[in-house]
Design a protein that fits this description.
With 249 residues, this protein is an alpha/beta fold. It folds into 2 domains: 1-81 and 166-249, 3-Layer(aba) Sandwich (Rossmann fold), CATH 3.40.50; 88-164, no CATH class. It has helices spanning 44-52, 74-80, 97-108, 121-133, 149-161, 179-192, 205-211, 229-234, 236-243; strands spanning 6-15, 18-28, 33-37, 59-64, 67-68, 82-85, 167-171, 197-201, 214-219, 222-227. The chain has a 6-stranded mixed sheet, with helices on both faces. The chain has a 4-stranded antiparallel sheet with strand order 2-1-4-5, covered by helices on one side. Helix 3 crosses helix 4 and helix 3 (97-108) runs parallel beside helix 5 (149-161). The two termini are 32 Å apart. The structure holds adenosine-5'-triphosphate (ATP).
Length: 249
């Protein structure tokens, strides 16, 4: 079998006496949508922070596309193709949707590009392409801060895609959304399937079981099982620790 795109081995993160990530191991294959599920406080966000370079692990290693990123900072992660979709704070709320995208694209280019962004038709085309991809092209001229919550999450996704990630980390992309916005986000993520490898933390089990090719379950900082949605649905330990009868059908 080919090497996985992301390999996480024995990752440990302690906060004082609390072991938030306790020798967690799992892998993500190139092209798949991989979901990370688990109860509140299981350590999912802490794990994502370590995979994006925001937190340094105390032990273990993170291998991405053959590179050891265990101790690398966030910029090195993005350069390697491992990006994270941020919370709403990363959006420049006073700028237009299009200008937010242009800035994100500009950040990817060499410094000599600085200043020529507004004039660059290629950059605008790419920004518009990304906005079409996430369903925001009609709002291109709108002020980012005036977008609805779900639309701001779509913009974050476009900003993350602007870094051309090989693997995109998504921490609760459906958080705070109503049912309609949540459904739209699932549809949008389905359009990315096969184009960008996704590692998704999500509590909405309908969304997880619709989107994921494989699922890893984290309990008390440990990955207790990785498998296909069917395998995870029927896994006795996962059912006991997290799913219960929620996904029995
Ligand atoms: N910066 C920190 N300092 C101290 N403890 C922390 C810190 N960040 C997280 N924790 C603790 O680590 C544990 C794991 O938290 P984490 O947020 O990673 O869990 P989670 O699975 O993402 O939870 P949820 O599903 O509720 O978002 C929790 O007990 C949390 O209180």
């Amino acid at each position: 079998m080919t090497e996985p795109l992301l390999k996480v081995e024995g990752l440990v993160k302690r906060f004082g006496a609390l072991v938030a990530t306790d020798s967690a191991s799992f892998d993500v294959r190139d092209g798949e949508v991989h979901a990370l599920i688990g109860p509140n406080g299981a350590g999912k966000t802490t794990l994502i922070h370590q995979l994006s370079g925001a937190l340094k692990p105390d032990a273990g290693c993170v291998l991405f596309a053959g590179q050891d990123l265990t101790r690398a900072d966030m910029a090195a992660h993005v350069n390697a193709g491992l990006a994270r979709s941020y919370q709403i704070t990363s959006i420049f709320k006073k700028l237009s949707v299009l200008d937010n995208l242009r800035l994100a694209l500009q950040a990817r280019r060499a410094p000599s590009w600085f200043g020529s962004v507004q004039r660059d038709a290629a950059l605008r085309d790419e920004a518009e392409h990304l906005l079409s991809q996430v369903g925001l092209i009609a709002q291109a001229r709108a002020t980012a801060g005036a977008l609805a919550h779900g639309e701001q999450r779509q913009l974050e996704l476009a900003l993350a895609l602007a870094t051309r990630p090989r693997l995109l980390l998504l921490d609760e992309p459906m958080a705070g959304m109503g049912p309609d916005e949540g459904r739209q986000m699932v549809e949008l993520l389905l359009t990315l399937k096969g184009k960008t490898t996704l590692l998704l933390v999500e509590h909405d089990m309908d969304a997880v079981f619709r989107l994921a090719d494989r699922i890893s379950t984290l309990v008390a900082g440990r990955v207790i099982a990785t498998g296909t949605p069917d395998e995870i649905r029927e896994h006795p330990e996962v059912r006991k620790a997290y799913l219960g009868d929620e996904v029995s059908s």
